[in-house]
Automatic annotation (TrEMBL):
Disordered: region residues: 1-39
Keywords: DNA-binding
Keyword Iron (UniProt): no
Annotated ranges, domain HTH tetR-type: 38-98
Keyword NADP: no
Alphabetized GO MF terms: DNA binding
Superkingdom of the source species: Bacteria
Xref: Gene3D superfamilies: Tetracycline Repressor, domain 2 (1.10.357.10)
Official protein name in the record: HTH tetR-type domain-containing protein
DNA-binding region(s), residue ranges: 61-80
């Protein structure tokens, strides 16, 4: 049965891509990602995201972050190598929250339903950071290195989301799926940032449409890939749509 979405909630390095992963149960999350508040590292991440919501990426300095977090420059440097490292830690924590918990109640759902559920949970986790995301994307438009870094972060994150939806995310095919899903997610992000409806109804509709289009495109890719030797070596209330296609690859992008 479908379920309605809950209220929005809210390392420097990037982890290797997993073969599989768990998922959160989708319960109400009115707080920001746990594990932050109360720890010096968490305060630094939150301070940076708060500053990012207030001003452009390029104007945020290390002293600004340290002062907002109530720590010294030495303490900040001890935890992070720079602003990208702080952003990476934020993304990693969001992904961990999405993947945390028991996914047994989703295992019997069609693949597209599982992917929809995982991606909507991620949007819910990002809800407290809408202004920071808006600011970040604005800066990326005039900062090619930042834009490239954001794409790399997005692809890595989508590999984890695919794994959370029990879709194979390794190898060349998995990388293509993750890149396609990152583009799909970015397209829906513009709707999400301007969606003030309860339960993010507009975001759900946009994601559903995007997954439908991606389903068709991936079917074409898989047919072409099948001709190339070695290629590939929601439970939520949402708008009505066409029937799901069978198979993991049919819903990846």
């Amino acid at each position: 049965m479908a379920r309605k979405p809950g209220p929005p909630a809210s390392d420097d390095g990037i982890e290797d891509t997993p073969e599989s992963g768990g998922g959160a149960t989708g319960q109400a999350r009115a707080r920001k990602a746990p594990g932050r508040i109360g720890t010096p590292r968490g305060k630094m991440i939150e301070a940076f995201m708060t500053l990012l919501a207030e001003q452009p990426w390029e104007t945020i300095g290390f002293r600004d972050i340290a002062a907002r977090a109530g720590v010294s420059l030495a303490e900040l440097r001890g935890q992070f190598s720079g602003k990208l490292a702080i952003l990476t830690a934020h993304i990693k924590e969001i992904d961990r929250e999405v993947l945390d918990g028991d996914q047994d109640d989703m295992s019997d759902e069609p693949t597209r339903e599982r992917l929809f559920d995982v991606l909507m949970r991620r949007f819910e986790m990002l809800a407290p950071y809408k202004e920071a995301i808006r600011s970040l994307l604005q800066s990326a438009r005039t900062n090619p290195p930042l834009a490239l870094a954001l794409n790399n972060f997005a692809v890595n994150s989508m590999q984890w989301m695919l794994a959370g939806a029990e879709i194979r995310a390794s190898g060349p095919t998995g990388l293509i799926r993750a890149q396609g899903l990152a583009l799909l997610y970015a397209n829906v992000m513009s709707t999400f940032l301007n969606d003030d409806e309860p339960g993010h109804a507009r975001t759900m509709a946009a994601l559903d449409r995007a997954l439908g289009r991606g389903q068709q495109l991936t079917g074409v890719f898989d047919r072409v890939c099948g001709l190339i030797p070695g290629c590939g070596s929601r439970r939520r209330t949402r708008p009505a749509r066409t029937a799901d296609l069978d198979g993991d690859a049919a819903v990846a992008v």
